[in-house]
Design goal:
- This protein is α+β, with helices and mostly antiparallel strands and 357 residues long.
- The protein has three domains: 106 residues; 62 residues; 149 residues, Heat Shock Protein 90 (2-Layer Sandwich).
- It has a five-stranded mixed β-sheet.
- A hairpin with a 5-residue loop joins strand 6 and strand 7.
- Helix 3 packs parallel to helix 4 and helix 4 runs antiparallel to helix 5.
- The termini are far apart.
């Protein structure tokens, strides 16, 4: 009896494994689930019927077959319904993916259905949203970069034509032409720096440095501009601040970008301050001003490239909208983070952290 049971169990196992391998070759999930349901019912039944035929003849064989047929039918219907509940969300997800592949970046998948499929749809929607933002940023980059390049180029072309036609003396336009060339060079440098940051090709020569010296150097470099704008510029450095491991020239560029932005948005008789203090295992640098403050949208988007909260005013004050994007990339490359918020007494506060050495 035991040997017979082992033989039947072995045959059932082999047949089951072969059937599962065959089911995996079916072309659709619906057919695979239906085949699995039938296999789960018919395989144990076949083993029971085989045992009954070999061991004894039962007068209830017909009843057993009827129960088996009913069970198989119920299992098949249940498998088809389950397959439909699984394949419908998959079909919607496939349709959304096809839309994104055709360039319809606004296509989204329904997040209904089983939990696993809903999580997949949510991840897909997040990916599609990021792709849409990326393509929007690329379009804005091309449009705004073209605009910011066209303005100095048009000025240079007009001045060159005036010189060629003898309508002006070279000494009159040479300083203005030099200024426009510097604007072009600065914009090209910013675009190149962003390209290096995005591609991961940015190299940092890290060494220990005191942020106090870097801050004071930047403040001295912008003192003349602050005085011309009638803005008070000061630095407050905590004596207990530890050194940081950074690339000093890159951090100087971050400070210069933040201070320049603060000076542009601070009215006359205002103030801009740089505060350096310890924050747990990092050093925090905050640039705060007494301007009009920032909105929640500005705090969220001001580090996006070419973004301007007030485009007309920003163009009048200069700047291509790349300084804060570069600052974020450089800070994150050092392992820090950067954020913006409204000041306690008005104005704006832009802070970033660097790991302490």
């Amino acid at each position: 009896m035991i040997i017979f049971a082992l033989v039947v169990a072995s045959i059932t196992l082999v047949v089951g494994l072969a059937a599962v391998a065959a089911l995996r070759r079916l072309p659709s999930l619906r057919l695979q689930l239906a085949g699995l349901a039938l296999l789960a019912v018919l395989l144990p039944l076949a083993a029971v019927v085989l045992s009954g035929i070999l061991m004894f003849t039962s007068e209830h064989d017909l009843a057993i077959l009827g129960v088996a047929a009913a069970s198989s039918t119920v299992a098949l219907v249940a498998a088809l319904l389950l397959a439909r509940s699984v394949t419908r969300p998959l079909e919607r997800l496939r349709s959304a993916a096809s839309g994104v592949a055709r360039g319809e970046l606004g296509a989204r998948a329904s997040e209904e259905g089983p939990r696993e499929l809903a999580e997949v749809a949510a991840s897909f929607n997040e990916m599609a949203e990021n792709l849409e933002e990326l393509f929007d940023a690329r379009r804005q980059l091309v449009a705004w970069a073209s605009h910011d390049l066209r303005t100095p180029l048009s000025s240079l072309q007009a001045m060159l034509e005036a010189l060629e036609d003898g309508l002006a003396e070279p000494d009159r336009y040479l300083p203005a032409m030099r200024e426009q060339v510097q604007v072009l060079g600065s914009l090209v440098d910013d675009l190149f720096e962003l390209a290096r940051i995005d591609s991961g090709a940015l190299t940092l020569e890290l060494r220990e440095a005191q942020l106090g010296g870097l801050v004071e150097s930047c403040v001295r470099g912008l003192a003349a501009e602050a005085e011309a704008r009638q803005i008070r510029l000061a630095a407050r450095v905590d004596n207990a601040v530890p050194p940081v491991r950074c690339s000093p020239e890159k951090i100087e560029r971050v400070l210069y970008n933040l201070l320049t932005n603060a000076l542009r948005h601070t009215p006359s008789d205002g103030a801009v301050a740089v505060v350096v203090q310890t924050a747990r295992d990092a050093v925090q640098v905050t640039v705060e001003d007494t301007g009009d403050g920032i909105t929640p949208e500005a705090a969220r988007r001001m580090f996006d490239r070419f973004w301007r909260g007030d485009r007309a005013r920003s163009r009048d004050r200069g700047g291509a909208g790349l300084g804060l994007a570069i600052a974020r990339g450089l800070v994150e490359a050092h392992g820090g983070r950067i954020w913006a918020e409204s000041g306690r007494a008005g104005g704006a506060r832009v802070s970033f952290t660097l790991p302490a050495a």
